[in-house]
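Friendly challenge for the regulars: who can give me the structure tokens for this chain first? No prize, just bragging rights.
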Amino acid sequence: MSETEAAAVPTVSQLENEGDIAADYLEALLDIADLDGDIDMDVENNRAMVSIVGDDLGVLVGRDGEVLEALQDLTRLAVWRSTGERTRLMLDIGGFRAHRKSELMELAKRAVETVRSSGEPESLGAMTPFERKVVHDAVAEAGLRSESEGAEPRRYVVVLPA
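First reply, four minutes later:
Bragging rights claimed.
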């Protein structure tokens, strides 16, 4: 790892600070929306992970996680405004991302099996950046390659033969 790369990796303390800023922002949002939820924070894979857990949080997730994506962007902006640094903070609400990650890993597994048996590339449907990352990681772990193609918001993953 070069000095530049090492300098780019935030410390655990910086990531915990990002989580604290995000938690404060999200607590205020929950108060404004008059919603109950507990906020959990963690640091995982050099990224602050913040989760809102509770009942009746579907309104904060939205259809296919659209509201969740917007809230994550707003939370990242709040952190950037406070720290002056870009953040890769990940937000989950009501376990939506955790559940979606399991579904995507199964989708990737099926695509890998199809590509191995056919020898042909397999295109998957449009996905968010989070979803594409999960699929790319699962495909790489299975020993195949994948690429993202298309333009947002219709960007998708193509699983390629080895």
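Confidence is low (pLDDT under 50) at residues 1-6. The radius of gyration is 18 Å. Your move, everyone else.
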